[in-house]
Fold this protein.
Amino acid sequence: MSNLGMQLVYALANNIDSVVCERIFLPDSPSSAPRSVESSRPLSDFPVILCAVSFEQDYVNLLRLFLAGGIEPYAAKRYKENIVAAGSPLVLAGGVATFINPEPLAPFIDAFLLGEVEQLLPDVLQLLLEHQKQGWPSRQGLLLEMAQKKTGCYVPAFYRMEYEAGRLSSITTVADVPNPVRKATLTEPDIAGHSQLLTAETEFADLFLIELGRGCSRGCRFCAAGFVYRPPRLWSAESIIRALAEKPGKIKRVGLLGMEMARSNDLAKVARTLLAQDCALSFSSLRADAISPDLLELLKNSGLKTAAIAPDGGSERLRRVINKGISEEELLWAAQALVGAGVTNLKLYFMIGLPTETDEDLAELVRLTLRIREKIKPIGRKRGRLSSLTVSLNSFVPKAWTPFQFCAFAGVAQLKQKIKFLRKEFAGIANLRMNVDKPDNAFFQAVLARGDRRVGEMILHMALSSRNWRQLFRLHGFDPEEYTRRRHDGEIFPWDIVDHGIKREYLWAEHQRAMAEKNTAPCDTKKCKRCGVCHGQ
């Protein structure tokens, strides 16, 4: 309920006088029918359903929501009704997961809104209102008009995915619609995106969220958001401060989203404003080279006890491979600065299973962690309380639209061996603990992240069954490793249906630079034309 993207959709829709938008979530109990928060109406009462999908793990629950609410999951079966009505709704989906790769959900969605919703949703809703005044003409005509006239509208029913020898061989159209579909991009808003709804019933009940921008200029090669949100746009300090003015007076905690890619001088301005308003700061992680004296002062005044920095790669070599652009010296300095500002639990985010990772890289991860521990130990001793270190290990998942889209997933067995090695190395070290995601969950995420419409069939089987995903895949003769294998440069990908403006040859060149351990400079949107995004604007 605290999701900023969902709140943005909710506010955009309800800002239109003729639209009433209500929220519905999947109930905790499988036997409960989903009903709206505002009026307790069942899902089947609504003629249009807007789905905000941020993560691949949401796919199965979205279909469970449809099934529990009495909605036919397959768009083709709703399409045959040829009307838009309660019980046979028009299902529209957006969110970053859908414009990275919409295809696993394609069998179930009437139209995807690919790109940033501020540019898409108001126009689409006005079009729907016009059609409603005419008594909801044919669904096919409505969807065709959306696909032809609205940038970012992708209607899967008008596209055919052809396969040869079990692999995608072509993407064709059955109507006069764009192929590929260009995403919609937002220019800087006057007021940065921020929390619209604050309620005691959520985890972030007393936290006012503000986004600092979209995209990132750093070009980390594993990060899909850094590529699909190109060109990178950092909101000005003034836009962020105007959003802060919307904060209810009783709320004193402010969460800044995207601090790892924000400009140091803008962060400093925002920090001074928060200090002046006696607000406390909260954030998920911080880029080591973005820490300023103003920010440290804000951290001290906020009483923040937990902070995170993300080396991502455990060694200098791996950080060159992933184009992280942060040195060991910067990481050591950042750790000391944060602990010196009062942080008593410092988290370090690492990925394992990165392309080209070796045992020596893992050994260097251990050495770096222990160096950080030694650097912060004297600060803790001086104040009478040692800071704890939490090493958070996340299995690398190759994502579409990144230079690592060509790479294979490391494999569950190999990842378990890496985790076993690190557990042994860190065992018995005081004030240090290790959190690990499950490699099997990462494997499933890798299947979804690079899946096609056939994966969608498996998602529905999961929504209908209590069996685990591996059992269901075996039962239906479906090989998940087909989706986690290494890809070649000339291959057609399911996500090629989306046009992000990024040239395939650029991603391949970046992949080659990664294998050669070469860094790439951050984006300079004033003069850089390398990836193709800014050249096409």
Q: What stands out?
A: The first strand starts at residue 48 and ends at 52. Residues 4-182 form one domain. The CA atoms of residues 59 and 524 lie 35 Å apart. The chain has a mean pLDDT of 92.
